């Protein structure tokens, strides 16, 4: 069984804040782009289905990067991978900013690079978060993801304001690129994952209590529990990713709301998700992973149905609130479950993140294509079926026999 080498409390605290900043910055950048999808659609003259196809470029970049992330992190370390991801994101944001004035091909290329950036960045910061959680000996992963949500709320609110002020997509995303370039490389200096425990198979043993060496990165793809956790995350990631890309447009197309109100509804969804993630650590420590996530999945199902079938705009907004709260803990819980054994965290988090991000990024284009045929609101009912699957496999996130942990 693996153990986590103790670190001094100030070192762990700095790592906790550095990891939080990485999550916040990632969420802010993502929501900044998502908040300008309607503007980008209008500027490029795209239909809903064409927007879905363009978004496939983002999904493709991430799907390529995610399966490789575990091996890259094992070789380069979490700090370098997040740093590299942030630099790629800066290039991508600048590319989108310029691309909306050039044409669809330029935006597609930039979105592909953005997908590559997020693929590595996301896995690496989750691995770092798992290491920090192990040192603190308490549940903190949901609060890291709350940081991501705080960033998304900030990005969405800023996006709504800039839409209302008629600020161009080019100016907006260029500013975001500059901010990420200034903040993220500094925050990752405090990361501890690279020096806090064993990283090679020669140094660790299997988490089943035997003396057998822990399997490599590819072996994680054959572990039943890891794959079930991946399916669990897939469903919640589909629900979250669909909201990120389509809530604003669904309000505009389905309810005739103004674009600024659509973006504000997106911000409300993100705020509800942030609340769930912030208080989720308390709920999880009190009641446990499986009971909490089952209740929240039910809340998400009610919210989705209300959002789709609401007779008025205010009730649709209430549905968005329940949708956000209900899906808040699915992704961070999956990351924690994948990282229950810190020694195998890079490989397992890479697998679970890969499966989850296929849904997070490829799901929204699918909704766009279905929305073209059946209407955007009706297309959202696909998410209901996937959340039902998540309920069925939710037992997979039950903690393993906990490895030895030391508080920082």
Automatic annotation (TrEMBL):
The keyword RNA-binding does not apply. It is found in: Cell membrane. SUPFAM superfamilies: MFS general substrate transporter (SSF103473). GO terms for molecular function: transmembrane transporter activity. GO terms for cellular component: plasma membrane. CDD domains: MFS_MosC_like. The chain crosses the membrane at residues 17-34, 54-74, 81-100, 106-124, 144-163, 169-188, 227-249, 261-280, 292-310, 316-339, 351-370, 376-397. It is a multi-pass membrane protein. Keywords: Membrane, Transmembrane, Transmembrane helix. Residues 15-397 form the Major facilitator superfamily (MFS) profile domain. It comes from the Bacteria. It holds the Pfam family MFS_1. This is Fucose permease. It comes from Pseudokineococcus lusitanus. The lineage of its organism: Bacteria, Bacillati, Actinomycetota, Actinomycetes, Kineosporiales.
